[in-house]
Structure formats: structure tokens, C-alpha cells
Amino acid sequence: MDTIGRLKHPGIYAIKNVLNDKCYIGSTIDLYRRRCEHISQLRNNKHKNRHLQFSWNKNGEDVFVFEVLEVIDDYDQLQTTEQRYLDDCVNKYNIREISESNRGMKLSPRTEEQRKRMSEQR
To answer: What is the Rg, in whole angstroms, of the alpha carbon atoms belonging to the chain?
Structure first.
């Protein structure tokens, strides 16, 4: 996968399969950190997007590139800009058709039973 600088930059990115031009499109407030998270999840077969994970497993890491589509200066523009890219992309791995931000979301408190179940699943 392509490298990007370690500086914290917000922006829109694509994880692209160069064999079929299929992309996963996302937005983040830190492109470098998000790239590292995706790679780690994919390498460990733990990515939440099953379509992307299946393709990664089938085709191998070497056919994927991480592309920065646009650096965004205004955090408030991330979601609308990501939506524009999602709308323009025909061949994508994204499951959701609508861009939704998890920024600022807090997880609800977990019960001991829920924590145990989540721990076992990991």
C-alpha cells in the first residue's frame, strides 16, 4: 500500500484494488492513523467491511493502494465531501451508501456480560 506522511491531516481516502478498480472510500481527521488502522485490521482478518476483507484475502495486499483523494482543512466538510466521492464512485466496497460520521460518538456503557462476550469474540 502507498505511504503517506506521518503528519496529522484530515481528508478523504480510497483503498483501491488495482485489479478491478473497486474502492473503499472513507474520511478521517488523521489520514496516516486511519491508513495504519485499515492495514492492521485487514492483515489480521478483522476488518469490519466483509467485502473489502474478502477481496484482500483473495487477491493479497499487493493489489491494494491507499490513495488520498482530498485533504480537507475544515473538519465540518469531511462528511459532505466524502458523500460526493461516494456518489461519484460506481464500483465500491462500501456497504453504506450514505456517509455517516462516528466522530464525537460515545459508546454506551457495557455490562460485564457484554464486555466478556466482546472479549471472547476478539
So the answer is: 15
Q: What whole-number distance in Å separates Cα of residue 16 and Cα of residue 25?
A: 9
Lookup: cell for 46? 478483522
CA distance 6 to 3: 9
- Give CA–CA dist 101/53, Å, rounded: 21
Which CA distances in Å does 92 have to 26, 33, 74?
11, 22, 25
For all residues of the chain together, what is the average pLDDT?
85
Separation between Cα atoms, residue 99 and residue 87, nearest integer Å? 10
Question: Quick one: 45 exposed, middle or buried, by C-beta within 10 A (0-12, 13-18, 19+)?
Answer: exposed
Which amino acid is it at 73?
D
Q: What is the pTM of this model?
A: 0.76
Considering Cα of 31, then 33, then 99, then 65, what sign does the dihedral take? positive
Give the three cell numbers for residue 94: 462500501
Q: What are the E-state strand segments in the chain?
A: 11-17, 23-28, 64-71
Residues 71 and 34: their CA atoms lie apart, in Å, by: 14
Q: How many residues are recorded in the chain?
A: 122
